[in-house]
Specification:
Layout lengths: L8 E3 L3 E5 L6 E8 L6 E7 L5 E4 L2 E4 L4 E8 L13 E8 L7 H7 L6 E10 L3 H72 L8 H34 L1
Parallel strand pairs: 2-9
Antiparallel strand pairs: 1-3, 3-7, 4-6, 4-8, 5-7, 8-9
């Protein structure tokens, strides 16, 4: 009994071409279109199931729609003298009204209801011109990526420099405030010393210990201010050098 003519339209119709090199997965696409007014069930079979990965390998194509099937050839050692004997078959059947169990649909299908199309596999290596073109494309892509990475690096470096400068400016403002505070404290200490001197009885002389304390208070405050100043300046210079 003659089989029903395939209702699906296949693109490509007769062969699947895989272009090497075959050291990595090579993918080709198969478009299945359903021009009818009915939903169609389909499944894709191959004579070498271990060599290919098909996604999706089965399903339903609604009326008036299409689907793209990705056929992925796994890496292998290519021999140009060996002719490919791999083949694919697209099998289809009109979907029943109640299509819940796809496995049961295919199992119960009658022979005259099944439709199929066969495709052979063709392996091709790129020509010298194509290789040169691909190398040029790879070079342009690589150069573009390096340029983009360089620009991003410069942008990041500039951003970091701006951040460091802002931090240095903040440290300078803190330094000025600290110096101003120490100057105010030093001035206040001098005023307090003068006030104590005026309050002392003119008849009595201050003890040596009190004289030493009054003489050391001014230099001690100045020494603290100088230490803080040198520490902050050292920190700022260190950041600028790094």
């Amino acid at each position: 009994m003659a089989r029903t003519e395939q209702v699906l339209v296949l693109e490509p119709p007769n062969e699947l071409k895989f272009k090497g090199p075959f050291t990595d997965v090579v993918t080709t696409n198969l478009k299945l279109s359903n021009p009818s007014d009915k939903n169609v069930c389909f499944k894709v079979k191959t004579t070498a199931p271990r060599r290919y990965c098909v996604r999706p390998n089965s399903g339903i194509i609604d009326a008036g729609t299409s689907i793209n099937v990705s056929v992925m050839l796994q890496p292998f050692d290519y021999d140009p003298n060996e002719k490919s004997k791999h083949k694919f078959m697209v099998q289809s059947i009109f979907a029943p009204a109640d299509c819940q169990d796809m496995e049961a649909v295919w199992k119960e299908a009658k022979a005259d209801e099944l439709m199929d199309s066969k495709l052979r596999c063709v392996f091709e290596l790129p020509s010298e011109n194509e290789k040169t073109h691909e190398l040029e494309i790879n070079k342009v892509t690589s150069t573009s990526l390096k340029t983009e990475a360089s620009m991003m690096s410069k942008s990041t470096s500039s951003s970091l420099d701006d951040s460091d400068m802002r931090k240095v400016m903040d440290d300078c403002r803190i330094l000025k405030t600290e110096v101003q505070r120490l100057r105010e404290e030093n001035r206040q200490l001098k005023e307090d010393d003068g006030l104590r001197m005026r309050r002392m009885p003119q008849m009595g002389n201050p003890t040596p210990s009190s004289n030493a304390m009054m003489k050391e208070e001014g230099p001690a405050a100045r020494m603290i201010a100088m230490v803080v100043l040198f520490f902050i300046l050292g920190t700022i210079i260190g950041k600028l050098v790094l």
